[in-house]
Amino acid sequence: MNFYAAEAETYSLHARGATSKRLDPFLATLPAGAKILELGCGGGQDSLVMLTRGFDVTSTDGSPEMARQAERLLGRPVTVLPFDQLEQADIYQGIWANACLLHVPRPKLALVLARIHRALKPGGVFYASFKAGAAEGRDRFQRYYNYPSREWLMSQYTPLVWMSVEIDENSGGGYDGETTAWLHVTAVRSA
Ligand SMILES: C[S@@+](CC[C@H](N)C(=O)[O-])C[C@H]1O[C@@H](n2cnc3c(N)ncnc32)[C@H](O)[C@@H]1O
Predict the structure, then answer these.
(1) 159 Rama class: left (phi>0) / alpha (psi -120 to 50) / beta
(2) Is the CB of 69 under 6 A from ligand 1?
(3) Nearest atom within ligand 1 for CA of residue 42
(4) Which tens digit of pLDDT belongs to each residue from 80-109?
(5) Which of 6, 27, 42, 121 is the most exposed place for a label (fewest CB within 10 A)?
(6) For residue 39, how far is its CA from the centre of ligand 1 (angstroms)?
(7) 4 in ligand 1 pocket by Cβ < 6 Å?
(8) How is the chain split into domains, by residue range?
(9) DSSP β-bridge partners for residue 167
(10) pTM for the model
(11) Helical segments of 29-96, H only
(12) Residue whose CA is closest, atom 19 of ligand 1?
C-alpha cells in the first residue's frame, strides 16, 4: 500500500492504456447493464470500459490515493474499500478483480474470497488474476505478492460453493517489466 500511495499518479498513467484482454470475455458472460463490483480498480481504466458499455459499475480501491486517480479518469466517485472490509451480500452479477488480489497475504486470501462469494448474486461471475509462483514474496518495488501455484490457488476457492472454477495460465508482463506467469481464475457462484 505504501507503493500505491507514493506512486499513484505514475502508476495510473502507466496503466491507462493497458486494459485487460480478459475484460471482454468477462463482460460477455453478463447481461446488459449488469451490476458489477470492481475491486482494486487502480487508475480506473477497466471501470471506464465497463461504464462506457453501459454496465452499472461500483469502482473501489483500498488505496485512497489510487481511488482519487480513478475518480479523475472516471469523473465519478470511487469508494475506498480494502478487500477485507467488503460487507455486502447478494448484490453483484459480476465482480472484477484484475491483478489486485495478488497482494492479499496468503493467510487472509480465503477470508477475502468468502466475502467476494457472499457479495455475488447466485450465478454471479467473479474474475481475478494472480502472478504465479511457489511461495509468497516481494518484487523490486517491495510490493507483497502471494505468488500462488495453480493447486494452492484452487484450494483457496474450493471450500466455497461454486458452480464452476476455471483457471487458465499465460505469460505476461507487469509494472516491473518482468515476464511473469499469470493465473486467471473465473468462478461462478452456485445458483
Ligand atoms: C497491480 S494494481 C492493479 C490495478 C488495476 N486493477 C489494474 O489492473 O490496473 C493493484 C491494486 O490493488 C490495490 N490494492 C492493494 N491492496 C489492496 C487491498 N488490501 N484492498 C483493496 N485494494 C488493494 C492497489 O491500491 C492497486 O490499485
Answers:
(1) alpha
(2) no
(3) 27
(4) 999 999 999 999 999 999 999 999 999 999
(5) 6
(6) 7
(7) yes
(8) 2-189
(9) 185
(10) 0.97
(11) 45-52, 64-74
(12) 82
Task: Measure the CA–CA gap between 166 and 26, rounded to whole angstroms.
Answer: 13
Question: Could you give the CA distance from residue 100 to residue 144 in angstroms, rounded to a whole number?
Answer: 11
User: How close is the Cα of 174 to the center of ligand 1, in Å?
Assistant: 13
Query: 103-141 pLDDT, tens per residue?
Result: 999 999 999 999 999 999 999 999 999 999 999 999 999
Cell of 163: 458452480
pLDDT band at 179 (very low <50, low <70, confident <90, very high): confident
Q: Could you read off the pLDDT of 23-49 as tens digits, one per residue? A: 999 999 999 999 999 999 999 999 999
The CATH number of domain 2-189, selected from 3.40.50.10160, 2.102.10.10, 3.40.640.10, 3.40.50.150: 3.40.50.150
Answer whether 15 contacts ligand 1 (Cβ < 6 A): yes
- The pLDDT value recorded for residue 95 is 98
Mutate to test the pocket of ligand 1, among 100, 116, 145 (most ligand atoms within 8 A of CB): 100
- Scanning the structure block, which residue is given the C-alpha cell 468477462? 26
Is residue 57 in contact with ligand 1, taking CB distance under 6 Å? Answer: no
